[in-house]
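A reminder before we start the practical. When you read a complex entry, don't treat the lines as separate problems. The point of joint prediction is that each chain is placed relative to the others, so the output describes one connected object in space. Small molecules and nucleic acid strands, if listed, are placed in the same frame. In the example below there are two entries. Take a minute to note the order of the lines before looking further.
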Amino acid sequence: MLINQFLLLGAVLFCIGVYGVIARRNAVMVLMSIELILNSVNINLLAFALRNGSVDGHIFALYIIAVAAAEVGVGLALVLLVYRNRRSIAVDELSEMKG
Amino acid sequence: MVAQNIAFGIVAFLMIFGAIRVVTVKNVVHAALWLVLVLSGAAAQYIILTAEFVAVTQVLVYVGAVMVLFLFGTMLTRAQLGQEKDVNNPTWYLGIPAAGLLLTVMVIALLSGFGDEELPTDAPVVSTQQVSDEIFGPYLLPFWALSFVLLVAVIGAIVLARKD
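Here is the predicted structure of the whole assembly.
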């Protein structure tokens, strides 16, 4: 088992997530792409935990899972609020703060 | 070990295919269901990486709770069911060179940095006891901070989403 196969899988998932964040217009789909990015980071952390023979990577992965759950909760509440005010969740229409 | 490599290959292919579907399908519900495939595949990879507690947590939190949140969010923010026309930005194609460039840089860096370094294939599975000893030992303070983050997130979500 090469360590690079896991790191490359993480890199591919990360880039797919970045593409999703840039390309998607629907705010819920942007949040899904962010989940892809966070999962690719977790795969890297666990690969390095196995490589170094330590448990620290597992703790970081668990904390990332918890923070991601909090992020999705608040993010979806924000999306609901935007939808209630504007009847749309297109992220490119939110341009009130544009200079 | 050949068996682990075969398992890795199958799961990795399914994950990448599912991830590409997540960012390309037009239907939000279908994207959420493809995301289930990616997250379950990630749990399988964690088991290959001898992290069984993290894998179980992944299934419980992501496939269980986060997915339900996504489906509720989709349900509450869509006027009509079925295909949607404008799920992509007008300039969606700019994401391809951005992600491609990023992937190129990362692949070059990883290949030159780690080459063909091997992971130990006979490592024992990390037990839940080891994980909990770490969390409630050296990592106790971040654990407290994390519980406050979760509390604030719950209160914040309620404050943001309630109607009045």
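Discuss with your neighbour: Chain A touches chain B through 72 residues (CB under 8 Å). What might explain this?
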